[in-house]
Amino acid sequence: MRITAAFSRLLDLPGVWVRKVGFEPDRVVVTVALCRRRLRCPKCEFSTRNRESRQHHDSVWRHLDLGVWRLEVHARLRRLRCPEHGALVEGVPFARADARFTRDFENLVAWLATKTDKTATCRLTRIDWHTIGRVIERVAAELLAAEDRLSDLFEISIAARSRGEKAIATSRSSAINAAAAWCGAARATARPPLMSSSPLWTRGDRATSRHAPSSASQRSWSRSAPARPSRPATASAAHAPGR
Asked: Which end of the chain is less congested by CB atoms within 10 angstroms, N or C?
């Protein structure tokens, strides 16, 4: 088996084929070419056969490390003109827009961020602190855009915190995975009574209606605990010795 075919199976990058593999003292450089002929905008679904120009240098993405070697993916891309985003470099199927890492590498970084702290993630992946934050933003934006979190909602949970400025956090639970679908914070405007026997429109409801107006029809109302009736004073209780 040729080395290009071996690396093509080893990397398993979608939509490309390996043209050349080079070994350097501290890294492995894999040069790939796109299989498709149409140019696709990296920020939308627009595609075209007409190219604006061709790059005179390779675009570089970092992939998952190959043992102790840093693995880089190189590709010579073309430029296209999108009706919405203007002239820009075509997108690739193995990396997100404006990213210098492959999709597999960013998914690993995002997974590590959920399992350990940033310092350990920096040492394992050999990237800096701020890069981890940008990777998490790209991965989260893609996952949240692909999922309609506001569908099949059946319950709205309201959590109030009385620390500092009394921020009110509201969250809506999903019927599928019981995870937080939306969160927001609002400053308390008025303090409702602690006890009442009638339904109350709490501060959390006002925050929900202000930050998520579409949830007005799905808002769940909760009654506050009824006030405990005061115990009538009797003559025996009035003369009872203090404890």
From this structure: C
